[in-house]
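Crash report, auto-generated. Payload:
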Amino acid sequence: MITSKNRITRRTLLRGAGGVSLGLPFLEAMLRPGESHAASTVPLRLVVFYSPGGTLLDKWRPSGTETNFVLSDMMASLNPFKDRLMFLDGLDMSVTSKGVGHPHSRGMAGVLTGTQLLPGDFETGGGGASFADGPSVDQVIAGRVSQGLKFPSLEYSSGWSISGRSAGEVSFAADQLTMAGSKKPIPPQTNAVTAFNRVFGSLTGTAQEQAAEAARTKSILDAVADQYQSLSARLGPADKAKLAEHLEMVRQMEQSLTGGGSNASCAVPMAPMGVDVDPTNPMQGGTGVIVSATNVPAKGKVMTDLLVSSLACDLTRVATMQWADSEAKFILNFDPLNMPDHHHAYQHEKGFQPDALFKIYQWYASNFAYLLQKLDSVTEADGTTLLDNTLVLWISEIQKPDDHSQTNMPFVIAGKAQGKVRTGRWVKVPSQPHNGLLVSLLNIFGGSETTFGDPDFNHGALTGLT
Amino acid sequence: MLLVSASACACTPDVTSQPGGNVAGSPMQGGGTGGQAGGTGGAGSTPQSCTAPSPGASPIRRLTRFEYSNTLHDLLGTATRPGDALPPEQKGNGFGNDAASLSTTRLLVDAYHAQAHDLASKVTADTAALAKLSACDTASQGEDACADQFVTAFGGKAFRRPLEAAEHDALLGIYKSLRPNSTYSSALAGVIEAVLQLPQFLYRVELGTATDAPNLSRPTSHEMASRLSYLLWGSMPDQTLLDAASSDQLATKEQVLAQAQRMLEDPRAREVVRFFHDTLYGINGLDGLQRDATFFPTYTPALATLFRQETEAYLDSIVWDGGGDFGTIFTGNYSFVNETLAKFYGIPGVVGDAFQRVNLDPTKRAGILTQASLLTTTTPGSHTNPVARGKFIFTKLLCGTVPDPPPALMVKEPEADPTRTTRERFMAHRTNPSCAACHSMLDGIGFGLDHYDGVGLWQDLDNGKPVDDTGNVPSGDAAGDFKGAVELGQKIANSQDARSCYVGQWLNFAYGRLEQAGDACTRQQLVDAFKSSNGNVKQLLIALTQTDDFLYRPAASP
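Recovered output after restart:
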């Protein structure tokens, strides 16, 4: 539970560790026009949790029956949430039989989009690649459920060894999960302080100051938008399209100045400190270089907290948390792992090492449990918890750590999603493309789709989730 | 079994000498400009006519993070690198400046806004910095007159051309709307905040000016000033360029040439060339690299930065200090190290933190192929990987193309084995026919570098057995057997394919796109210029400003 001193009410002024204070106008601003706290219903949210490198399937599987099962030691940290879990055992990521790149990059491209990885100029272990061929399911859902909120979605990554912040860096196909559309990646934020400031940082000062600041920003952005429009009129179609895309985002940002929802469960996390690595310390894509990552556990928790707070404050209803990029080539020399090499090394570079991998997957499971615990600690206006109103999807880009095969993917759903999924189950699914799961997610979030992604792998929605 | 193949890997090694030639379905595939297998560096198929200018597409170009930081430094005096806080670019042509592949996300627009807000507040809080942008005494001239002057001066610098009347009014309008509720300097901050989010600032917009030919226009003099400054400095034009533009002195090839020659003497040109090489060779992310200490006991993460700096100093000396030509990149028996790096390599007699030139054992070290930066960045972990090293050399240095493994292929690297050499571990690539077709191309090059371990140190033994450093380049004019990296460096230095490849990479970087079939004339012009200057990189930069692609643009078709 969130302690009462941390809860925002209409009368409190909260001051976080970073000196951030949130006052009344912020709360008012988070309400949609014409909406009152009492009248708002609790919204449904989507959280995607990604861990790299598949799993040890026999250790991932529970034992027992569909509804009466025991979690394995590797997954034991999830015991408190057993009744709110659904193991989806048997889906294939068939779309990865198409496309370019190596299995990691094909899997990253395909898992949320159901499409293939398109050719391009990124170096991957398996050849030149660009990005997936369509939007990811979370983005389609965000377009549907986050309308009018401060952010359509938020994407974070705590252990991002491939795409950092140095000027020479470029985003990297092998690690791109979320897509606005074909070849339109939405890179995750990798810096916790920047991520915090983006969500909560600008909301400082007194009520009057905040209102004045919002009005000022609005007038500036109005002028900016005008210029995009008038310049665009003088350009050719391709350039026009580029500026139109930019303008749309400026407009969205402008609307977000007054966007938001209910604050009933809103609590602001502490401003993060000391969890970001030196910004001059990233790595170059495609070369598999290892970087320091002793901060990953702390940063992952901070980002999880931030993500949960953003959902609780209804600043967005869709979020993605990546604990690493797909090859995860950062050394695991931190508690509780304390290993001398990186995850991928134990998959096959140093030979398949199941004991080491067991520890690593156990650690990812504990991070998943942390997310669930944080979601469960937020009480909503109607007395339910945020976890009750969320569908959490745990994904990876491959199944088998050593040969990177992508059949029988280890999908886990958690959270009750307002009863739209029937949890507390270990569901054995007949072998079929995972596109059906993506269709089902769209349906759960109000869509009527019968297909999603590559038509070659579409057999309708996955049944049996409810 | 190291690789399990679902279908044969029908491989044909191909050197096209065109960067990006490995992009399936890219426009150049059918363009007829690439060489055939073992080709001639794209030089053998010049199209019928290169007489009439036929410039390639010239889309609006968003400032890269590198350019954004540089520009804010020159515009506002910003000493930090705010571009580093922006989300990474899509790689596209490899340099993150490929206009066609860049999309705009909400994250990026939020980051532009956050930066604009911060930078505007900082600069207006600093009286001296503000006065530098536009010196005006509000007491004697009045605030409104000073604001007007500010908009003209700052707007013109930020837009890299004089403001149009409507633009001036719009910016002054921001000041006027904010001033009643804020201080004078805060109202100016609003103008700056807006400008730093405008397309005229964030993008390089060209409207062009007509020529006698109907489908051809050329950049205006101000647009040419930006073409020059972003190519050669990665930043906005200086006052000299803007003055030249204002008097329309950037209209002819000769005028452009004179400016380019002047600009190359500026230190900013070095930064661009460094950025190009760091990106091309993939060493810009080395900093902070960790390695398993059980395998590399003398290595520490602090060394990675020194690795990068060694290569930068080496290339600087070649390009700028008359140290050599393109070939020297792969052949110099010297390098630049400081005390820490020298100790790591085992080079005696170097004292202090400053990098100094040292001569190296010519049988063991020659050029960047034997420098720790490249050897490390092409090693994916604790074990050297001839596939990764071979692929880097074949595709990045020779522009060779390697087909992708079929998707159904289960790729499995050979397992670590303390009793076998790297060559022995990877030899199954040769014995399994479905793998050999492709891997003979890559591994053959990589095996030649087996004397260098995963952090670039020389090893006589690999897992206790003598290293066999014989190698083979599969195709192109460098094709054939070689022994060790020093010989391989000689091969690359003498390869016209390698030079043509390098030229093409500069073409992509300079023009912010991926080379296309229609670029054949431009490519030929650059290849010829590079040849006649004996591989002088500075002259290649000059040549990049003398092509039809640089001097003209297609007429706009709104």
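Post-recovery validation: Chain B touches chain A through 110 residues (CB under 8 Å).
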